[in-house]
Amino acid sequence: MSKTALITGVTGQDGSYLSEFLLAKGYEVHGIIRRSSVDFRERIAHLEGTPHFHLHYADMSDSMSLVKLVGKVQPDEIYNLAAQSHVQVSFDAPEFTADVDAVGVLRILEAVRTNHLEAKCRIYQASTSELYGKVEDVPQSETTPFHPYSPYAVAKLYGYWIIKEYREAYNMFCCSGILFNHESERRGETFVTRKITLAAARIAQGMQDCLYLGNLDSLRDWGYARDYVECMWLILQHETPEDFVIATGVQHSVREFATLAFHHAGIELRWEGKGIDEKGIVNNLTPALSEREGVKVGDVVVAVSPDFYRPTDVVNLLGDPTKAKRELGWNPQSTSFEQLVELMVKHDMQKVTREHFNLAEYLEKGIVK
Ligand code: NAP
Ligand code: GDD
After folding, report:
1. Residue 130 falls in the annotated catalytic set
2. Of 11, 128, 193, 197, which one is the catalytic site residue?
3. CA–CA gap between residue 149 and residue 88 (Å, rounded)
4. What is the DSSP string of 16-78?
5. b vs e for 202-235, b when ≥16 Cβ sit within 10 Å of the residue's Cβ?
6. 120-129, 150-159, 225-234, 353-362: which has the minimum mean pLDDT?
7. Alpha carbon 157 to chain centroid, angstroms
8. Residue 205 in 3-state DSSP?
9. Where does the pLDDT of residue 64 fall: very low under 50, low under 70, confident under 90, or very high at 90 and above?
10. Which residues, at least 6 apart from 367, have a Cβ–Cβ distance to it below 8 Å?
11. How high is the pLDDT of residue 356?
12. Which residue blocks in the chain are alpha helix, DSSP H?
């Protein structure tokens, strides 16, 4: 008998990889989508219409929709990935963030209880390294104290504790994966890594002059999203419901990410200045780029803008994945930082080339002016 999974956040980076992973394991996969004015779901377009993949309209802020859907699907496993997931946005929309990222978790748990599925249905909650926030210890493990440092993190802390509470109060199999940052060619374009890889590709191809960033000193433990969704599944297959830190155990700064991304786009950077005055300047170009019109040695291609500073910023995340390695048999370093940056830049170099040709064709045909 194949298992049935319900994924909230199926259209997101992780939801799309998890869908592929579960379909390959023979699952019947159901996902929650929201109505939007543009109904193109880029990350899962290739799955829509395939026999074991089903989409349903519902919303994390609408209890009734969740109760009805859980009753209809009768899932063996729920992966609760839906969230307003952007930390900086949570400062501008804190109430919405709390509704979806905190109370949304409660709504999922209650939907399972209302349908009397506590004994059958296992629940995975997408918790986050942002819970460590203004960190009290480095590296961070399952026992490191939390100190959330944004409205997003405070909302996610509620999610973490309500999952723990329902596990103890109602004996439910529900767990948190405390995932550190994970990126990919499907990462949202306003998160720092994807913002950098897209800009490096555009600058190399003469489509953008300069990339503006915030805190270049911020340190993250960056892994590859495709590797991380396996862990979500492993956590729910574990004998007992437990929380796990999922991380690579390797840390880099935003500046290091940018240096490597530009390198893969054919641009060697040198850094000058400090704080708000720091600049990334072209030190060298590959022969192919130096022969083209566009970016030149000496150009400032990275600058700092205070617009991307946060009221409180989390600056030192480094995870200790020992428990996941030991108990789940998971390899935290199947994709290295260097491989991750390279695959993201390669993808975005091709994407920008395609956009460039489409634009040229549209201009020629008069579709855009
Ligand atoms: P993402 O790409 O931003 O995807 C978020 C998903 O949530 C999208 O499918 C979005 O739907 C959905 N969503 C948002 N509000 C909703 C609502 N009210 N009702 C229903 N669906 C809603 O995020 P991600 O990177 O895949 O991350 C997945 C989860 O892991 C999130 O909970 C995030 O907070 C958490 N997390 C992520 C990381 C990371 O580094 N990526 C690390 C730790 C934890 P639309 O497409 O309709 O907007
Ligand atoms: N987004 C962004 N844009 N961040 C920047 C920029 C910029 O221009 N310049 C510097 N940064 C810094 C941020 O201040 C932060 O310290 C770091 O880069 C990473 O920012 P994001 O990529 O936006 O990710 P995040 O760490 O805040 O949040 C992501 O990871 C969390 C797990 O730790 C999200 O995916 C969250 O949903 C997730 O929980």
Report:
1. yes
2. 128
3. 11
4. HHHHHHHHHTT-EEEEEE---SS---GGGTTTTT-TTEEEEE--TT-HHHHHHHHHHH--SEE
5. bbbbebbeebebbbbebbbbbbbbbbbbbbbbbb
6. 353-362
7. 17
8. coil
9. very high
10. none
11. 79
12. 13-24, 63-73, 87-92, 94-98, 104-114, 151-170, 192-204, 225-237, 254-264, 287-291, 322-328, 337-365
Q: Is 11 in the pocket of ligand 1 (CB under 6 A)?
A: yes
**Considering every ligand atom, which ligand is closest to the CA of 62?**
1
- Average pLDDT over every residue of 79-84: 98
Asked if 205 and 345 count as a contact pair (C-beta separation under 8 A), the reply is no
Task: Provide the token pair at 190.
Answer: 């306003």
For 251, the 3-state DSSP assignment is coil
| Ligand with an atom nearest the CA of residue 307 | 2
What average pLDDT does the chain have? Answer: 96
| 13 CB near ligand 1 (under 6 Å) | yes
- Close Cβ partners of 174 (under 8 Å, ≥ 6 residues apart): 109, 122, 123, 124, 125, 163, 166, 167, 241
Decide: 316 and 140 in contact? Cβ < 8 Å: no
**Which of 130, 160, 185, 248 is the catalytic position?**
130
Query: Do strands 219-220 and 223-224 pair parallel, antiparallel, or not at all (unpaired)?
Result: unpaired
Q: Probe ligand 2: pick from 146, 176, 192, 216, max atoms within 8 Å of CB? A: 192
